[in-house]
Amino acid sequence: MLKNYLKLSLKILGRRKYFTFVSLFGIGFTLLVLILAAAVLDHIFGAYPPETRADRTLSVYTVRMTGDDSQSTGPGGFALYDRFMRDIPGVERMALMTMPQHAVSYWNGARIQVALRRTDADYFRILDFQFIEGEPFGDADVNDGRFVAVINESTRRKFFGDRPALGQALEVDGQTFKVVGVVPDVPIFRLLATGDIYAPVTTSKTDEYRSRIRGGFVAMFLLKDASLTESVRQEFKARLGKVDLPPNFKRVLAVPESVFGTFARLMVNDFESDDAGARLLAILLTMAVLFMVLPAVNLVNLNVSRALERASEIGVRRAFGASGRDLLLQFLFENVVISVVGGALALVVAAGVLAALNGADLIPYAHFALNLRIAAWGFAFALIFGVISGVWPAWRLSRLKPIQALGGAR
Q1: Is residue 174 a contact partner of residue 181, using CB atoms and an 8 Å limit?
Q2: Mean pLDDT in residue range 378-399
Q3: pLDDT digits (tens, 9 = 90+) for 98-113
Q4: Which of the two residues, 21 and 242, has the higher pLDDT score?
């Protein structure tokens, strides 16, 4: 039966070329916007190298300290994590790192701006960097404060051209580092892994960072198993109650969570709940549905007008025994088919748009591309759009009685 529905749908769409073009344009444009949004969100929050263990990786980007008349929000301090969050049950490793900080280098008379990130050795054990040259620095390098660095491909190209960088020296922010490894570029929106130069945290110019409860550091936790997420969060929260806070502050709030969860927490300004990500996801899905509603309503009106012109066809089919259910499924199937075709065209156009974005290099190191996950979202959007815009016209036509339909009733 589905084969017959498909054949009839294609014949009808081919017969009404103008309607088909208008419908495909509206559907395709709507789905194009949604697919592009899904592609961007997927490449920001999805599991891509070197963040391949996203299912059991939690991080803390933002800490909020509150008092009667005071509030301070921002990255946590080294002391907060080093003194109070070591050896949480269920955590396999904990890494501490700064966010990438702008630094300046001078090479062969040229001024080069780079993003410098200071980390510990566990940083490279949690993240799955594929080394092009050398290897990461280790615990001994961090403990001894050795001036060694891992750099990305673009930095190697800027400083050394096509030559190997291993063992070379480079100057950054007034400090000279020896290159021990080279890794692929990481897009700027991959907040855990992005950076141009990675150096041991102990090479900081002062030791002031060691005593700070808030400021400058992100903590990353690799869990032994993803099922331990809630127990790790509760232990983390319990330990926050033991932190010695600066004067004027009484509480400190923070939650280990995914990158998406952190983004959601900042967007909804919620530092109390354990899972702000679910709220933001619901908001995003609601926005996607609402974005589809207006063009779907326009398409509903177009479908009703088109379908009522087929009243005589409906009357003949009803006279020969077609049930209302058969007509409902046929017209709904036609609408789903054109929505899926529009979705396929949107995927093709989206691939071209993403390639153009990559070529324009608007986002440093970004490489947007479609994948099966995004294609699945596109297919889901197309089905939802087809059903939303097709149910009412299909139901209305299926209710026409044979005599009314043959008489051209509206």
Answers
A1: no
A2: 72
A3: 999 999 988 877 899 9
A4: 242
Which tokens is 196 given? Answer: 């141009």
Q: pLDDT, tens digit, for every residue of 280-333?
A: 778 877 887 777 776 767 666 666 666 666 666 666 666 666 666 676 677 777
- DSSP, residue by residue, 48-87: -TT-TTGGGEEEE--EEEE-SS-EEEEPBPHHHHHHHSTT
Dihedral over Cα of 313, 317, 318, 323: its sign: negative
Residues 6+ apart with CB under 8 A from 209: 77, 78, 201, 215, 216, 217
Own/partner long-range contacts of 275-284 (Cβ < 8 Å, ≥24 apart): 284/41
**What pairs with residue 219 in β-bridges?**
60, 96
Q: How many CB atoms lie within 10 A of CB 212?
A: 16
Structure tokens, 307: 């379908």
Q: Strand, coil or helix: what is 205?
A: coil
**What is the structure's pLDDT at 122?**
98
| Contact yes or no for 340/382 (Cβ under 8 A) | yes
Taking phi over 0 as left and psi of -120 to 50 as alpha, with beta for the rest, 248 belongs to left
Mean pLDDT within 365-373: 84
State phi, psi for 73 to the nearest 5 degrees.
-125, 135
Closest to 216 measured CA to CA, from 82, 73, 70, 97: 97
Name which residue leads in pLDDT, 16 or 165. Answer: 165
β 91-98/101-107 pair status: unpaired
- Burial group, residue 116, by CB count within 10 angstroms (0-12, 13-18, 19+): buried
Which helix (DSSP H) or strand (DSSP E) does residue 149 occupy?
strand 148-152
Q: Are 115 and 100 in contact (CB under 8 A)?
A: yes
Residue 233 — pLDDT band, cuts 50, 70, 90? very high
